[in-house]
Amino acid sequence: MTTNGDPEEYALILRITNSLQKSRDFVSEHQSKYEQEVADYLASKPGPFVMASMPPARKKLHDYHGMLSELLLQALLALDGVTCKPDFEVARVKRREAVKETQRLLDAMDAIHARVKESDRLARL
């Protein structure tokens, strides 16, 4: 699993793999629920509002997106904190892949939230 069998590289690979798996598990646990909450909110044809008096259903979505985003940003920061020696080629590749996948998960959550924000914008027109 490592370039040269170095136990230090192997430990980094495990750390990277575990961090990515934690993000995957968290998103798989919450993504479908979040998507359903968004679908239900959009189906309710929400009217315009000011941010100071955000309706409870909309605030729930705002908070849910914040929680999902925060966890994924923390995962990106954890991966950013992994320092691989130049000769740890496998660990470097695994870290790069983990960063890309975690960013993809974050982008997916942001895309779902963008539908809510677009609905808010249209309601104000």
TrEMBL record:
Residues 59-113 form the BAG domain. InterPro entries: BAG_dom_sf, BAG_domain. GO terms for molecular function: protein-folding chaperone binding. SMART domains: BAG. Pfam families: BAG. This is BAG domain-containing protein.
